[in-house]
């Protein structure tokens, strides 16, 4: 890439982006109607929904937490009927955790609330040109996270 002396400083943009993305993430979390779940529980439930069944040890590695912490998280989700544990079909000594129908419904509700808030905010605050700019920014952000 070539550098443009009139371009903003990458470090400054990164710092500002970090702050704004943190605010967006907090706002999205607060848009969720589901006070039943902690952020960790929502993250695990979402991971299981998207990635399929997993062992507690796999979940702990993926979520970057200790296995003991993950056992507590999975236990709370199971207590609410949002996940279930079953024997691993390929290794009967292990147990896999998967999302229940109720867990999928809770996730769908949470996702709908978040998307609803964000859609409403975009529609109320941005004009057509700004919407195009935001769409381009989404593509750029996706490129950054694929790096």
Automatic annotation (TrEMBL):
Domain HTH marR-type span(s) in chain numbering: 14-146
What keyword terms does UniProt attach to this protein?
DNA-binding, Transcription, Transcription regulation
Which PROSITE patterns does the entry mention?
HTH_MARR_1 (PS01117), HTH_MARR_2 (PS50995)
Task: Write down the InterPro entries for this protein, in alphabetical order.
Answer: HTH-type_Bedaq_tolerance (IPR052526), HTH_MarR-typ (IPR000835), Tscrpt_reg_MarR-type_CS (IPR023187), WH-like_DNA-bd_sf (IPR036388), WH_DNA-bd_sf (IPR036390)
> Could you tell me the superkingdom of the organism this chain comes from?
Bacteria
Q: Which SMART domains match?
A: HTH_MARR
Query: What's the source species' lineage?
Result: Bacteria, Bacillati, Actinomycetota, Actinomycetes, Kitasatosporales
What name does the UniProt record give this protein?
MarR family transcriptional regulator
Alphabetized Pfam families for the sequence: MarR (PF01047)
